[in-house]
Design a protein that fits this description.
Strand order of the largest sheet: 1-2-8
Distance between the termini: 54 Å
Strand content: 5-15%
Order of helices and strands: HHEHHEEEEEHEEHHHHHHHHH
Helix content: 55-70%
Radius of gyration: 21 Å
Number of strands: 8
Number of helices: 14
């Protein structure tokens, strides 16, 4: 009982710190934004249920029992085989009773794919602004649209608190097959290995690289051939999707560098969007009609939306090369990434851009 009280006290203190920071930063961010963030996180923290205790319940539905057991196995694998800082993460479950945990808003200028950054006291500057309410996110997005920016709002099913709190398994991810759940957990835990405030592409690309390598090893050791085939097919299509979108992002970048009248620029921009959609439809035919990315392509395909794909993937080849140079030794890989993460931005970019 004393340890539980101490944990609760620690969580409460952290919440008060978050709100206190919002007051200190009132000149550049609104108190209301930080207050909703603190309240949203506290609702998750105080809504947690211990997974082991849930597994001991006789009336736990079979599907939840199987998923909870899988998550505990994934935790063990992450700690023992991937050397990730699992700690007490993913030992608890929270039923959020909504589709997403947060909604992120992305914005970019009308003629640039470089996203707007917002800065926070813990995460540093990142290329999105998150809300625990979809209504609040859409309201904020509308404000930026009125200012002439391209805006994209997307629901997020999970996130890392970077060790600030113990991350829980959320109901928003429970429909995912086990291999996708494993990839998610590996990705989020990777953020606790290396995280550079203000460098979204570095952070997300590193986590994606760990996710891919972790999933490869997990499938090799844990799953039957049928699941491996499904996961491999899904991974190949994901890679084709990334390559398609990033290639068009580069085409948009080239367009924006041309000295064209705004109206002509807008017409060319719309034409590129139409070409991107057409190429996606061609890819779908090659995939046998797989519509897995239809929801993504149903959005405006504007600069803000295009920027989200690059953030998670642009530096993945670099990190894969670093892992290869470490001979696949994850401990050496993490040490090298931590060394690079400690460099200033200019030094870091010189190293990360050396691999094409």
């Amino acid at each position: 009982m004393p340890s539980i009280r101490l944990k609760t006290l620690s969580v409460t203190v952290k919440a008060l710190i978050l709100v206190g920071l919002s007051v200190l930063l009132i000149s550049c961010e609104t108190v209301s934004y930080y207050t909703q963030a603190a309240r949203g996180q506290m609702a998750i923290v105080f809504g947690r249920q211990d997974i082991q205790h849930l597994l001991e319940s006789d009336d736990l539905p079979t599907d939840l029992r199987e998923k909870f057991s899988a998550v505990l196995d994934i935790r063990d694998f992450a700690a023992e085989e991937l050397l990730l800082p699992v700690g007490d993460n993913y030992q608890t479950y929270v039923d959020l009773e909504r589709e997403h945990v947060v909604w992120n808003v992305f914005a970019a200028p009308e003629f640039s794919t470089e996203p707007v950054n917002w800065c926070y006291p813990i995460a540093g500057c990142v290329a999105y602004r998150g809300y625990f309410s979809e209504t609040a996110a859409l309201k904020f997005a509308a404000e930026w649209e009125r200012r002439g920016f391209d805006v994209y709002t997307g629901g997020v099913d999970a996130y890392s608190t970077l060790g600030w709190f113990e991350d829980s398994l959320l109901s928003t991810v429970m429909r995912r097959p086990d291999y996708q759940l494993a990839a998610l957990i590996f990705h989020e835990l990777a953020h606790q290995v290396a995280y550079v405030p203000g460098d979204t592409t570095f952070n997300e690309s590193f986590a994606t690289a760990v996710e891919r390598e972790g999933l490869r090893r997990w499938l090799r050791d844990s799953d039957p051939a049928a699941t491996i085939a499904i996961a491999r097919s899904s991974r190949e299509r994901q890679q084709q999707f990334v390559e398609l979108v990033t290639s068009y992002r580069d085409k948009f970048d080239s367009l924006y560098q041309e000295q064209l009248p705004e109206q002509q620029m807008r017409q060319r921009k719309q034409a590129l969007k139409a070409q991107l959609r057409a190429d996606y439809e061609a890819s779908k035919r090659q995939w046998g009609g797989d519509a897995g990315y239809d929801t993504w392509f149903a959005n405006p395909l504007n600069n803000a939306q295009l920027s989200t794909v690059g953030s998670y993937n642009d530096l993945v080849p670099f990190f894969i090369e670093v892992l290869a140079q470490a001979g696949g030794n994850l401990e050496a890989f993490y040490e090298e990434v931590e060394r690079i993460a400690a460099l200033d931005l200019e030094q870091r970019e010189l190293i990360t851009q050396a691999v094409d």
